[in-house]
């Protein structure tokens, strides 16, 4: 069976954050929320569960745990146990919980920038010192500045890693991850790894969970994953941490303190359906997104030579450098005002990136082309 992703799904009037923030004449291409219907297998599983009229407390089944164990083994040759999995209502609560569990006020945290806004904000929630290490644009991709990384880690007790990286779309290679992990191990620090986009990786690249690099790395790593981005079920609030070291896992779960509970019954149902029945849909989705990525890169080069886009290796997000166009104090505001298309402003990811925008190409091709046409219309008014 093959799946189509060209259908336009009307989302206005559904209390969707993505479509409710701006006026009706604005095309939203901002928050990391795809404009595709969920896999029919997930929709069917949820419909069956909703047909039952009672929504009491649910349990996390052994079958769900085993599907995740099997998935890690099949895709990454990563041997984990069912008890290594800690279920959470989201990845953002997960990395905040990890920071509160492992660090003390005043400790340092290394963050690779530009970074997803909740990652930038998280150290401040726990009175930690954030040490930024900016990814460098080099030879057509963003790369790790290891000199800056080791300097930051000298002042840190943890690295808050994002791989695949949001917003640049980098999928870090084994040698890069190994160098980072070795620096963390040498300093007896921790890795809190946000790997929520791990399923969305394009040809020529492969996701490598950093915890798979060796027992000494796994012993100090908390890996955060979810079905939410891949299967477009983020609103159902379900995620999980994989922590193979028992002592580290105990510290993490002890920090929950009644504040961070397990996912709701529908989030668990969707996650189970995704892992047990969603493989074929996922493969077709990634192929469609890769075609969208390639189309976007081609159109950028052809129609917008003044905008630099280093093609993302994963995620459905593109990080666009509009510096050469000199669009004023905010590239995002320019395109919103002149083109009625909404991107994320670059300043959300790093304060000095006002000339950047983040574009979400997780949408039917017709919407992507509409967005490109709106950009062209905006630039024609300069």
Total strand count, please?
15
Strand content: 15-25%
Cα shape: globular
Numbering strands along the chain, what is their spatial order in the largest sheet? 2-10-9-8-7-3-4
Return the structural class.
Answer: alpha/beta
Instruction: Provide the succession of SSEs.
Output: HEHHEHEHEEEHEHEHEHEHHHEEHEEEH
Q: What count of helical segments does DSSP give?
A: 14
Helix content: 40-55%
Alpha-carbon Rg, integer: 21 Å
Mean pLDDT: 97
| Unreliable spans | none
Question: Could you tell me how far the N terminus lies from the C terminus, measured between alpha carbons in angstroms?
Answer: 47 Å
Query: Main beta sheet, described?
Result: 7 strands, mixed
């Amino acid at each position: 069976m093959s799946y189509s992703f060209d259908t336009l799904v009307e989302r206005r009037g559904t209390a969707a954050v993505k479509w409710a923030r701006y006026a009706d004449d604005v095309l939203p291409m901002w928050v990391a929320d795809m404009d595709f219907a969920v896999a029919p297998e997930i929709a069917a599983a949820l419909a069956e569960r909703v047909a039952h009229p009672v929504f009491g407390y649910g349990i996390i089944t052994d079958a769900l745990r085993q599907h995740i164990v099997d998935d890690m083994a099949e895709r990454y040759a990563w041997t984990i146990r069912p008890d290594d999995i800690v279920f959470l209502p989201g990845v953002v609560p997960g990395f905040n919980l990890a920071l509160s569990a492992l660090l003390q006020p005043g400790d340092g945290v290394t963050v690779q920038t530009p970074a997803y806004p909740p990652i930038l904000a998280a150290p401040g929630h726990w009175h930690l010192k954030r040490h930024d290490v900016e990814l460098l644009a080099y030879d057509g991709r963003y790369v790790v500045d290891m000199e800056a990384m080791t300097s930051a880690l000298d002042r840190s007790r943890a690295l808050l890693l994002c791989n695949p990286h949001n917003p640049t779309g980098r999928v870090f290679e084994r040698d890069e991850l190994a160098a980072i992990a070795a620096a963390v191990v040498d300093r007896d620090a921790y890795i809190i790894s946000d790997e929520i986009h791990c399923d969305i990786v394009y040809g020529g690249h492969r996701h490598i969970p950093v915890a798979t690099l060796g027992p000494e790395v796994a012993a100090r790593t908390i890996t955060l994953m979810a079905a939410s981005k891949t299967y477009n079920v983020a609103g159902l609030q379900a995620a999980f941490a994989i922590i193979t070291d028992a002592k580290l896992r105990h510290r993490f779960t002890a920090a929950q303190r009644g504040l961070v509970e397990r996912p709701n019954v529908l989030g668990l149902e969707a996650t189970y359906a995704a892992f047990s029945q969603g493989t074929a849909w996922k493969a077709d989705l990634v192929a469609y997104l890769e075609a969208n990525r390639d189309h976007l890169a081609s159109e950028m080069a052809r129609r917008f030579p003044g905008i630099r886009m280093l093609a993302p290796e994963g995620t459905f997000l593109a990080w666009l450098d509009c510096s050469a166009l000199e669009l004023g104090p905010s590239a995002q505001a320019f395109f919103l005002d002149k083109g009625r298309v909404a991107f994320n402003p670059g300043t959300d990811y790093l304060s000095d990136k006002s000339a950047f925008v983040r574009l979400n190409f997780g949408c039917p091709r017709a919407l992507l082309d509409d967005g490109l046409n709106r950009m062209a219309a905006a630039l024609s008014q300069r």
